[in-house]
Each structure stands twice: as C-alpha cells, then as structure tokens.
Amino acid sequence: MALPVSLRNSVTPPELELIASEELVEIIPLISMERTAFISGAYGPLRPPNKAKIPLWMAINLKMKKKCHIVPPNWLSVDFLQDRLALETSRQEFSQFPFRFTEIAKLLLDVAPDDIQNSERIRSLLKDIREVRQAKSREGLQKIDHSELSLPNLCSMEINEIRPFFVRAMGVLTQLTRDPVADSQFDV
C-alpha cells in the first residue's frame, strides 16, 4: 500500500509498530527457558504454565514458533471496546486508551487471533472506534488557531497521522498572524 505524500515525511505505521513491540505483554509459555539477556533487558525464566511478562516482539517470535500463548491485554476485549465506543460516540473528547493501542492491537490480531476471544468482533469494534476518533480529529483540526491545538488522549498513530497537516497549518497561521509593523522593522 502506498502512503499518501503527507505521511511520507513522518514515521510510517510499520515503524510505529516496531516501537510498540517494546511494550510488555503477558504470555503463557509452552516451553521452559532460562532467564535470557537481550539488549533491551533480561527476560524470563519461562516455566509453563506460569505466566510471564516479556516484550511484544519476543512474544510474537515465540507465538510464531508455537511456543507460547499470548494473553491479550484487558483493553482488548469486546466489553471494554464496546464501552469505549459508546464513550467515543457520546462525548466530545477522546476517551483514554493506552498510547500505542492501535499498533499493539494490530500486531496481536495479526499474529495471535486464536488467543483473543471474538477476534473478528474486536477488529470490527477497533475499526468503528478508529473512524469515530478520526472524525473527532478532523473536527478538532477545523477549529485550529495559531496558539494551540488541544486534543488530549490521542494515541501515537493518530498523532502521527495529523502531524504533517498540523505542522503545515501552524506555519501558514503563523505567517498570517505576523505583525506587519514588527516585520517591517527588520527590512533593510
């Protein structure tokens, strides 16, 4: 999929997924493994059936080798997402999610849909939430002024999507709101 020109100057979604893969998730290991040191830290020991917290990148690697089950985070459930969708549609402000929820959800749904109950329903709810939040972002950007843009509780992917537009818009607004008298003092 080709990215729009506006996103080519920003961090790409796969790069955001790579950053999110450092987040810790819980797994149920199917193999035993001693404590292992990596550049990002030491993880383990893994002893079935005890749960362990490891980085998402490691959990994905073990899952692809059929050496663990990934325990989905609490927010990746039908009940939680339905509640958040109701909040998103009934309130003006963004509801609170983990900062990298879109990237984590995508990775988990791509690699471990069998570990997530009602994974197709969750995909649908995440899509609905994304659409509602995008509409709120567009509405917030229409109200932009030269001093600030306040959109609390945006996640990293959403910030990344609006960043190119916001930077350009703020540049134009700054030029439009410059004091011509102050600018003429510097003309030689």
TrEMBL record:
Residues 75-173 form the GINS subunit domain. GO terms for biological process: chromosome segregation; DNA replication; double-strand break repair via break-induced replication. SUPFAM superfamilies: GINS helical bundle-like, PriA/YqbF domain. Keywords: Chromosome partition, DNA replication, Nucleus. It is found in: Nucleus. The keyword Transmembrane helix does not apply. The keyword Nucleus applies. Its main location: nucleus. Residues 12-71 form the DNA replication complex GINS protein PSF2 N-terminal domain. One of its GO terms (cellular component) is GINS complex. Gene3D superfamilies: 1.20.58.1020, 3.40.5.50. Component of the GINS complex. Belongs to the GINS2/PSF2 family. This is DNA replication complex GINS protein PSF2.
